[in-house]
C-alpha cells in the first residue's frame, strides 16, 4: 500500500526517527516491540525469515527492486519519501535507500536452545557489528544458537541485523535474565568453554571437547568477567604471535567456532 | 615543532585533504609517497614501527596524549588546528582528533617474503577494512607476510592501517607487478592453496599441507579469478551450513590461517 509522505514530522514515520541514536532507539524499539531492517538484501532476509512488517520506508527508485516483497504485504503501508526526507527523519544518509520496520519476533525458548549441541554465549558484547558478526559466524558454521547476557548489545538492532547478514532473524537466540542462567546450560550437560587470552589456559589445538559445548565470549575491552570465568569448566585460548594485538572478538569467535564445531 | 594553522587552504596541510575521497587519495599518496595514520593508537604503532613522519595534524586537546611521540620528532611540524578546520580540510569528522602523515616505507623485498613458511596472497580485495583485517589476522597468527595483487586495495590506506591495528606497518608485505609473479612462489617451494566456496574442493579439515604454504584469497564479490584458481595446487573450502551466506573474506582468512598455520 503506497503512501506518499512529504512531512518529516508525520507521526506515521515514528518507527524511523533518529536511527543513529542507539540509546533512544533501544528504548523506542523495546517499548514498541519493533526492529529495523536496512537495505534490500536484509529486507529480503526478513521476508524469508517470516518477519511481520509494520511498514516500509522507501525512496521511489527502490520500489521496483522490492516489488515482490511489497506485493506479499499489500496491506502494510509503504511510505514513499524523498532521499532528503529519509535523511531528515532517520538522521543519516540512508544506505541504499530502503528501510522497513518489523514486529520483533519472540526470542527462542530455552528448551530449543538447550536441545542444541553447540551454543555461543556472549557476555556484554557492546559493539553491534560484533554481535551481528558472531551470529553470522555461528549460523555459517552450523552452531545451534546464541545466548546473550542481560547487558549484551541487541542482536536485532539495525546494525547488528545488517552485519549478521540476517542471521539474527534465522538463528535461534535469546537474552539471559541474569548470570544464574548459566546453570541451565550446565544442567543440560553443556561444557562451558571460556574463550580467553589468559596465559596458562588450554591451547585451542589441544582441546577436543566431548558432548555439548557452550562457548563463552567476553566483552571487547576486558574479556569475560571473573564470575563467568569461574563458572566455566575450562579456559581455552588461541595461541598468538607475541607483541601482536589479539584478534577482534568476532574473528576469534570464528576460529574457535570452527575448531570446536 | 608546534605550528598553529587557521586557514584551511594553507598548502602545508596538503597531505590531509579530502581523506574520504579514496580515488583522489590513492593518486595523491602514491605521487607524494605518503600514508596517513589516524588516532593516537595507530600513531603510536607507526612510531614503534619506525615510520618517518612528514607532519602531524592535531587538535590542541590531543597534544598532551602524544607528548612523548612529538618529543621524539621535534624537527617535524605539528600543525595545531581547531576541530572545525580539521574537518574542513579532511572532509570528515576526525575520529579522536589526531592525524599524522608519514613517508611510505618501502615494500618488503621478494627475498624476505619467499623466506617465510606461510604467506597470505590477496587477489583484488577491494575493501580497505578487509585488507587491513587480513593483515591483522596474518600477524596475530604468526604468518610471515602478505602479498597483494596489482589491483588489490592499498594496505597503507588510512582505513586499512586502522583496521590492521598497525599490522600494515609491521608485517612484511609487497604488491605484485603482475599475476606471473605467482610463479615466484611456486619456484620457492610454496604450495598454492586457493580458498574457495566451490563444491568439490577439499574440506579444510581434511587438508594438512606439508612445507611452505601460500594461501590465496579472492575478491569479496566473485572470489579468485579463473587464472588464480588454475595456478593453485589445491582448492580448499570451509564447510558451511546450507542456505547461509559465506563468511566474510577476513573471517574466512582467520579460520584458514589458523588451521593451516
UniProtKB/TrEMBL annotation, chains A, B:
It comes from Tessaracoccus rhinocerotis. One of its GO terms (biological process) is methylation. This is RNA methyltransferase. GO terms for molecular function: RNA binding; RNA methyltransferase activity. Residues 119-258 form the tRNA/rRNA methyltransferase SpoU type domain. InterPro entries: Alpha/beta_knot_MTases (IPR029028), Ribosomal_eL30-like_sf (IPR029064), rRNA_Methyltransferase (IPR051259), SpoU_MeTrfase (IPR001537), tRNA_m1G_MTases_N (IPR029026). It comes from the Bacteria. PANTHER family: RRNA METHYLASE, RRNA METHYLTRANSFERASE 3. The lineage of its organism: Bacteria, Bacillati, Actinomycetota, Actinomycetes, Propionibacteriales. Keywords: Methyltransferase, Transferase.
